Amino acid sequence: MKREDLQLYFIMGTSNVPSQEEPIYILEKALQAGITMFQFREKGPHALTGLAYEQFARQCQQLCHHYNVPFIINDDVDLAIRLGADGVHIGQDDLPVGVARKRIGNMILGVSVHSEEELQIAMNHQADYVGIGPIFPTSSKSDAQPPCGTSFLQEAHSLHPELPIVAIGGINFANAHSVFQTGVDGVAVISAICQSKNVDYTVATFKSLSCINK
Length: 214
Prior knowledge:
Layout: E1 8-12, H1 23-33, E2 37-40, H2 50-66, E3 71-74, H3 77-83, E4 87-90, H4 97-104, E5 108-113, H5 116-124, E6 129-132, H6 151-159, E7 165-168, H7 173-180, E8 186-189, H8 191-194, H9 199-212
Parallel strand pairs: 1-2, 1-8, 2-3, 3-4, 4-5, 5-6, 6-7, 7-8
Helix pairs in contact: 1-2, 1-9, 7-9
């Protein structure tokens, strides 16, 4: 994984997409527009299960490979191993970091952290990057923690400049500048792309905001 892979990290599952849209179409539009990493996150009350879940994951993986974008699976280590995904992203309520690292070998390992203690544990188990958030209020995750603002982002980047960091949670055009100013490597978005009327413009704008602050 390269640090620049985190520049614009798109996260999506079927429940994040408006009912009139095809999720796979949204993903391809985002890939064509220039997202730099994709996380398959199929959760929620109407999430796909069983064979449909795995088939959708494979479709997403094939598209990502076509556009040469890393394909990351949220939480499901078994599926990631079965599909030969590029990596796995886990939260604090998922498989312990050390166990995940042993199971996935050299795959990319991303970990959601909310404190310096959690960050240290992730680093001790060779996490390739950490996700910090939610930075701002978000409607994309019903179980999201309270917003932490940009202060912990700034602190984490200052204390661990060698650690790739991506920010997530309620990030939009209006507040992305303050996020990139902390020095983090990128932003992860769900609604900003899934709900966008113009995916090309959305992706280009986020990437230009990132470059302004480099």
